[in-house]
Amino acid sequence: MKILVVGSGGREHAIAKKFSESPLVERVFVAPGNAGMKRDKLEVVNISELNISELIKFAKDNEIAFTFVGPETALMNGIVDAFEVENLKIFGPRQKAAMIEGSKDFAKKIMTKYGVPTADYATFENLDAALAYVQEKGAPIVIKADDLAAGKGVTVALDEETAVDALRAVFETAEAKVVIEECLVGEEFSLFCLVHEGRVYPMPIAQDHKRAFDGDLGPNTGGMGAYAPVPQIPESVVIEALEKVVKPVVAGLQRENCSFTGVLYAGLMLTKEGVKTIEFNARFGDPETQVVLERMTSDFALAIDDILAEREPVITWCEDGGVTLGVVVASDGYPAGSTKGLPLPETGMTTYYAGVAEKDGQLVSNGGRVYMVTESGGNVSAAQQTLYEKLDKLDNTGMFYRHDIGGKRV
Questions:
Q1: Which of 255, 345, 349, 376 could bond to 324 as cystine, CB 3.0-4.6 Å?
Q2: Do 304 and 191 fall into the same domain?
Q3: Tens of pLDDT, residues 324-340
Q4: CB 74, CB 68: distance < 8 Å
């Protein structure tokens, strides 16, 4: 079969590469993809993820078995709805169901209605009312822009001044809406599930690192590294998350006439009161995808094809007790900006490319998060040691990375 992956980042590189490992797959196309993906013999197609009509034409012309959507922007723009109108197979939520990520307020209302444990919150469309609420509640407090923000629209304000600044930034936009939450305390983890028609197929949990610099310092980013699974989170907690968070939301969306198909991400925190939900995404996360999919031992392409065809998939994972860890290399200035044109080293490791371009046959930086390298080991410490010994020897001039991914969890 031939598969089309929509997107251009490290997440899509990992998804497409995993599909290409299937003996059932003849060709994997990525639209728009990036130059680094070609190194894994993936075929890059120069069509924007938002050019839905051209993507539909490509899928028809190339007899694509199914399309897999990576980025949230395409989902929120209705790519799944449009493909289904043309009777094309596609894995992802329809526009209405994708609101579980597209609107923080929508997600909180669903959670509240269906009894899903989450932080106390209030939603505001007026700056003065929001400021008064922060003054009443005090800090720490969490400020979330209601709409999509590519993983960077959340401010954990440790003082009221930071909260006020975050609110003013949100309300610079016309028709802005903000969700203000209590600040949960505990250990975070990510749970991805393949979902279709009420059926839920969980994946190994992961933990990412959002802050830019070592020691969880600096601005919030799209993610600077991740590892999977998370040894310190017991299986009983994962089961609790499935039963109290994921399954009620999936069932709730069905009852709300917006049944979910695709990858449902639950951002969770293990608190003293048990598991609580931080947020939902309607797609795979980046950089967690890169480490989670490396743990899969079954045929990913066959699993998606089976799910879409209403067949029960066979999905298996590494059971060696080990850990896969990944570190993102970003260009100086990220997340506020980026440096383009920096030559990239040959890593000698499993590498997923994101913000890259090709110049005279050489890969160069072309965005904030440039590439991610991964290594596996018997535990977090072993994976760290192997990865950093190799990464620290590379010439990453003009770029930076965290040196402590997984370090707090050894």
A1: 376
A2: yes
A3: 999 999 999 999 999 99
A4: no
